[in-house]
């Protein structure tokens, strides 16, 4: 089941003396967060309005409405930020990594179950799905068009066509 509120970063420190905070983004790029006027704390239960937001050295600097002093900003340190998935705009074919975690990976030709995705990591050239089957065996799947054929996010299934030698046991 898809989560409505998704983790997107963590407030790590204050910035200046007028209540701004610096957050470490947990997104493909910090620019993703620039389009949000509202973020959330406490697993999505507390909405916070964003007065200003900018990227500074791969971090996001936020001015949160009602946070006007460094003392108020300090109280937010180590808080996890969330977005509401309904506020996010994704390109065609894109999905949130959190929606892939737990998806079953199946061979599109044979129906063989290779396990469930437990992590997705970028490599520079492409992402990699980390899988674990019921016996605990781990496998890596490159996220490239020749391998990942179909993603059914709602159904929790990713269909692949492994390259020759990818899963030689």
From TrEMBL:
GO biological processes: ribosomal small subunit biogenesis; rRNA processing
Residue stretches making up the RimM N-terminal domain: 8-87
Pfam families to which the protein is assigned, alphabetical: PRC_RimM (PF24986), RimM (PF01782)
Single GO term (MF): ribosome binding
Primary site of residence: cytoplasm
UniProt GO cellular component terms: cytoplasm; ribosome
UniProt key word Transmembrane helix: no
InterPro entries xrefs: PRC_barrel-like_sf, PRC_RimM, RimM, RimM_N, RimM_N_sf, Transl_B-barrel_sf
Domain Ribosome maturation factor RimM PRC barrel: 98-165
Keywords associated with the record: Chaperone, Cytoplasm, Ribosome biogenesis, rRNA processing
Subcellular location: Cytoplasm
Domains as described in the record: The PRC barrel domain binds ribosomal protein uS19.
Database matches in PANTHER family: RIBOSOME MATURATION FACTOR RIMM
Family: Belongs to the RimM family.
HAMAP family for this protein: Ribosome_mat_RimM
Quaternary structure (record): Binds ribosomal protein uS19.
Protein role: An accessory protein needed during the final step in the assembly of 30S ribosomal subunit, possibly for assembly of the head region. Essential for efficient processing of 16S rRNA. May be needed both before and after RbfA during the maturation of 16S rRNA. It has affinity for free ribosomal 30S subunits but not for 70S ribosomes.
UniProt protein name: Ribosome maturation factor RimM
Organism (species): Youxingia wuxianensis
């Amino acid at each position: 089941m898809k989560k409505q509120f998704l983790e997107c970063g963590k407030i790590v420190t204050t910035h200046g003396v007028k209540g701004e905070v610096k957050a470490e983004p947990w997104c493909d790029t910090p620019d993703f967060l620039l389009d949000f006027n509202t973020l959330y704390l406490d697993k999505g239960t507390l909405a916070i309005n964003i007065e200003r937001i900018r990227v500074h050295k791969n971090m996001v600097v936020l001015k949160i409405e009602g946070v006007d002093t460094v003392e108020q900003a300090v109280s937010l340190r180590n808080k996890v930020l969330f977005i509401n998935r309904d506020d996010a705009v994704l390109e065609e074919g894109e999905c949130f990594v959190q929606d892939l975690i737990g998806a079953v990976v199946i061979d599109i030709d044979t129906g063989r179950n290779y396990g469930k995705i437990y992590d997705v990591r970028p490599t520079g050239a492409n992402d990699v799905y980390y899988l674990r089957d019921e016996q605990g065996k781990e496998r890596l799947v490159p996220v490239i068009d020749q391998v990942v054929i179909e993603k059914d996010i709602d159904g929790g299934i990713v269909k692949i066509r492994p390259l020759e030698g990818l899963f030689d046991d």
